[in-house]
Design brief:
Oligomer: single chain
Number of helices: 20
Shape: globular
Strand order of the largest sheet: 7-8-6-9-10-11-12-13-14
Structural class: alpha/beta
Strand content: 15-25%
């Protein structure tokens, strides 16, 4: 194993010799397939181990010359995996750190990488040594909430500023696909989940050094995976390791400040704070309704650069406080890469949020119906609830071991009522009984996916009054009753439109359905 480990430590370029390396890939989702495809292209021997395999990906594995071991019971290492005798394991983010196969690897002193480490080692595919080209810089973004919006904003700003850029990672496009794109990029904006960060910076030769990095916020989430809040924070903190230019942190979140203070960075890297208050020198913030940069200018102690205004953001549907915070973080990352302020302002004039992120579905009889299905944990739901003064809250799903009491207590006064969905309704019901005992709380007991949202919408419509917002902000994962948060949001929108007799028509006056 010593010889294999030495070989692995030296494999830090696409242009090194990976041929014949025996690699077991754990998982066959989008990430797992990108790992297998990459390693097969490099000439490695690849065994993919999965409890279940998508038929199309299984067929493609055969085409690229990788072997599939589909075994529903992975409570012990299958005989074929043991026989394969891997020199390296590359694990998909969905595999829990104490999965039996990973414990087996640990007992055998087998090196384990994640897809992010593999991508970092291979990032020079289209910029080989001696070519005069450099591998793309990485700007890394993590946080409990707001990652995808911030990555999209940052990438859009960089593109408008003239850079060749790709948003990738947890946002949906595997980093390994981005680094293999033949056109090449100047910079990758990489969304990193806590699962991915858990596996980075563990092995010699594969330690990341991002150009700039940001942790947007920290709140209870995925504690069932990490085991404790301390472990979750430690994973997130890795985003700042070896940052070269800017460590962007949230002034309102002391966890992110401590991360930056404790990070080992490249000499000269700066701490850049963002927040919804007045910025200090080296910060981004708001003064009299104006979003300001006091970090990337010569006289930052006495002046600031205007980026945009809250009024302009409101016109673009971007004025919710948590969205403004994401805009400030993205602006800081873009400015660290040299994007001009006017470019940022122009981008914000045209930028629109993705579907299922505080998305207004329709307004009927003075009631707004809003889809924030992306609010998959209490921290995200908290930000969403704070944007509206009077709410009928559609909430519930898989709570992932997170305590909901604080969220219910914090927003009891703004609630007209609540409609509970999902398998963890009992915990929600108990929280409402403790913290909002007089509040109307209705349960959706439908078992079939298709029946959940029509009933939830009907119940919410009965509670809502003029001036209210019916808000789908579940504070929970969706996989108990839906494929993902997107399906949950789509079905909510469809149920809302069906409730009011079809798609909204801008030319027709809004009205409530008969009997509502």
């Amino acid at each position: 194993m010593t010889g294999s480990r030495e070989r692995l430590e030296a494999l830090t370029s696409w242009h090194h010799d990976w041929s014949g390396l025996r690699v077991a890939v754990f998982g066959l989702g989008v990430t797992g397939f990108s790992v297998a495809d990459t390693l097969a292209e490099l000439g490695a021997q690849v065994l993919v181990v999965a409890s279940r395999a998508d038929a199309e990906r299984a067929m493609l594995l055969e085409v690229i010359g990788a072997e599939l071991l589909e075994e529903p019971d992975l409570s012990a290492p299958p005989a074929r995996l043991v026989e394969f005798d891997p020199e390296l394991i590359v694990v998909s983010p969905g595999f829990h750190w104490d999965h039996p196969l990973l414990l087996w690897a640990d007992r055998g002193d087998l090196p384990v990488w994640g897809d992010i480490e593999l991508a970092w080692r291979l990032r020079d595919k289209v910029a080989p040594p001696g070519s005069g080209n450099s591998p793309a810089d990485w700007i890394c973004v993590t946080g409990t909430n707001g990652k995808t919006t911030t990555v999209q904003l940052t990438a859009t700003m960089l593109l408008a500023g003239g850079s060749r850029v790709a948003p990738c990672g947890n946002i949906g496009v595997p980093v390994l696909d981005a680094i293999r794109d033949p056109q090449g990029f100047d910079v990758l904006v990489v969304e990193l989940s806590s699962y991915q960060l858990h596996w980075v910076n563990r092995n010699r030769g594969g330690v990341l050094s991002p150009y700039s990095a940001a942790c947007l916020n920290i709140a209870d989430d995925h504690l069932d995976w990490h085991g404790s809040m301390e472990a979750y924070i430690a994973a997130k903190a890795k985003v700042y390791d070896n940052a070269q230019v800017a460590c962007v942190y949230n002034r309102a979140d002391q966890n992110t400040l401590r991360m930056v203070e404790e990070a080992e960075v490249i000499e000269g890297a700066r701490a850049i704070g963002f927040g919804l208050d007045i910025p200090g020198p080296s910060d981004f913030g708001i003064v009299d309704g104006i979003l300001c940069d006091r970090a990337f200018l010569e006289d930052r102690r006495n002046s600031a650069i205007e980026l945009t205004t809250l009024d302009e953001l409101a016109e673009a549907g971007l004025a919710a406080p948590h969205v403004v915070a994401n805009i400030l973080a993205a602006s800081a990352l873009a400015r660290s890469y040299g994007v001009e302020p006017q470019v940022i302002r122009d981008v914000l004039t045209a930028f629109r949020l993705d579907a299922h992120r505080i998305e207004l579905v329709r307004v009927e009889a003075g009631v707004s119906w809003v889809d924030d299905s992306k609010a998959t944990n209490p921290h995200a739901a908290d930000a969403s609830l704070r944007a509206y003064p009077s709410v009928v809250w559609v909430v519930g799903g898989l709570l992932k071991g997170v305590d909901i009491d604080q969220l219910v207590s914090a927003h009891a006064e703004r609630l007209r009522g609540a409609v509970l969905i999902g398998v963890d309704r009992a915990a929600l019901l108990a929280a409402f009984e403790r913290h909002a005992p007089g509040l109307p709380v209705l349960e959706v007991e439908a078992d079939e996916t298709e029946g959940v949202m029509p009933l939830a919408v009907r119940l919410a419509g009965g509670l809502a009054r003029e001036g209210d917002t019916v808000l789908l902000a579940p504070a929970a994962a969706s996989m108990d009753q839906f494929t993902d948060y997107a399906e949950r949001g789509r079905l909510f929108q469809a149920a809302v439109n069906e409730f009011f007799g079809g798609e909204a028509d801008d030319d027709e006056p809004a009205s409530r359905p008969p009997g509502a």
